[in-house]
Amino acid sequence: MNAIEVKNLKKSFGDLQAVDSVNFAAAQGEILSLLGPNGAGKSTAISMLAGLLVPDGGSATLMGHSVTADPQAAKASLGVVPQDIALYPDLSARENLVFWGKMYGLRGAALNQRVDKVLEIIGLSERQKDRIGKFSGGMKRRVNIGAALLHKPDVVIMDEPTVGIDPQSRRHILDNVKALNKQGMTVLYTTHYMEEAAELSDHIAIMDQGKVIAFGTHAELIKLVGEQTRIDLTLNTESTVIFDAWRNTQGVSRIDAENGTVTLLVDDSNLVLPRLFEAAAQANVRITSVDIQEPNLESVFLHLTGRALRD
User: Fold this and answer.
1) Which strand (E) or helix (H) includes residue 11?
2) Tens digit of each residue's pLDDT (9 = 90 or more) over 29-59
3) pTM (two decimals)
4) Pure H helices in the chain
5) For residues 78 and 76, what is the distance between their CA atoms, to the nearest angstrom?
6) Residues 22, 289: Cα–Cα separation, whole Å
7) Which stretches of the chain score pLDDT less than 70?
8) What angle (nearest 5°) sits at the alpha carbon of residue 50, between those of residues 190 and 95?
9) Among 224, 225, 241, CA closest to 233
């Protein structure tokens, strides 16, 4: 039995097809990442899994329980870490966890023991009496994660938990995700950071414009771009001056320009780079920086969509 199973899931808002016949699954004990840019449909998909939105079509199950036909059983197996902070700033970290523990039906010694354990997991035992309002953004997100773990769920959904936090807190959260997974917890992790998906995931579902456009392990997805290399270039002028010439350069398979950076997928950077510099010189364009990267998930996204996966 899969811990998470989604089949042909659909959700529209007026004329916008936010989730369009999406399919993905995660076995028990896996980390599955939904990777895609903002607006890809990731949050809408997990909102349906969490019972916050009613699907227009398709089905979804958590630990074998339908989120529509048996919502109480599905929710009982689930912990949700929302993108927004769901805490009371005037209460301490411990008081927040006690409150959410009671919401899950925990009481007495069992509640206190579980709060102690969760504080240990998120690394905030020494700060448990401090008001949430005094915490940094990263510390608030760690308590946000702790609240979802109090009832020992089989499945945890984490919606972009590292957005806008400092590197140290981000590292702590990623290590927490891996530690929880080692204990047997299934994690559905949404992100637009390809390096997080690459580090954490057993399987990755790449989403764009409401659809899952690729699904597989990190290695399987990288194979989609073969041996192609990604090159990022910045220029001393607008990319439109050189875009068409580079697009028609031998060895270039994809090209995208965004926020002052031109991104290309090429067969052999050693052969293609001189051609790019030659075309730039003929157009009186100066290349101000070059960054060459081996195939990665952003290369996969560029290969599939023709666009770079950026914020």
Assistant:
1) strand 2-13
2) 999 999 998 889 999 999 999 999 999 999 9
3) 0.82
4) 42-49, 71-76, 93-103, 108-121, 137-149, 167-182, 194-200, 218-222, 243-247, 269-282, 297-305
5) 6
6) 39
7) 310-311
8) 90
9) 241
